[in-house]
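#onboarding

Welcome to the new folks! Below is a worked example of what a typical request in this channel looks like: someone posts a single protein sequence, and someone else replies with the predicted structure as tokens. Don't worry about understanding the tokens yet, we'll cover that in week two.

Example request:
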Amino acid sequence: MIGPKLSEKWGQPVIIENRSGAGGTMANAAVARATPDGHTLALISAAFAIGAVLHKDLPYDPIKDFVGVAQIGASTGVLAVTPSLGVKSVKELIALAQERPGKIFYGSAGAGSGIHMTAERFKMVAGLKSVHVAFKGQPEMLVEIMAGRIHYGFPGLGPALGMIKDGRLVALAVVTQRRSPLLPDLPVLAEVLPGFERDASHGLLAPAGTPRRILDQISKDVTSVLELPEVKQQMLAISFEPAPSTPEEFDRIVRNMISIFSKVVVAAGLRAP
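Example response:
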């Protein structure tokens, strides 16, 4: 959505290269080794921060080898429960899970996935002893929640929206900074669970050493694209909340994500303290 608009603005093609491998590690390594001239950027999500704390043998330093360019925004997650559980609010779910330690099950799209980390943070902040069940992806997890074989999860709002509207899932809160226009009556999770922070930021990083004037210009241009009404509309349609930032702000966001996930990964037992 952003690339074509930047191409128009810059008068040169913006090439989107989907380089797979090791959860984004290969793509990030390519950017870390690139010439720091603003022509090679990494589009990252929470997976960048999760990888930074899960893996000790990365081919790059997630802090020293990159510099922030701009936040783009955040995908909207939703706390969804099976209708058979009979809960209608976050507080009711927490109370029920506390009453039944080890007997309430939550799903994820795989151990160490963003959905897993969000659920672990919820569990940690709420003081729950719910049991994790890992699936191969969101579709399988959603089927199991609807069937009542597991009790809750944190799918993306886009994939879950139809199931929420027809009553096959019960939505309790969104995982964003602001309420979603797609479900405006649904509270933000942090409103009802103080201490819970968002973890779904997407944004651009550049190789360390990229000149400040280049970073500032790219950030300014990305912001101008994100403010276009048609881009906002496209993003909101897939439950993505635009939230541009300065390079310095995105640097802080990335460091904060790494700090948060470090605590969550240890709490989830995925890494020793």
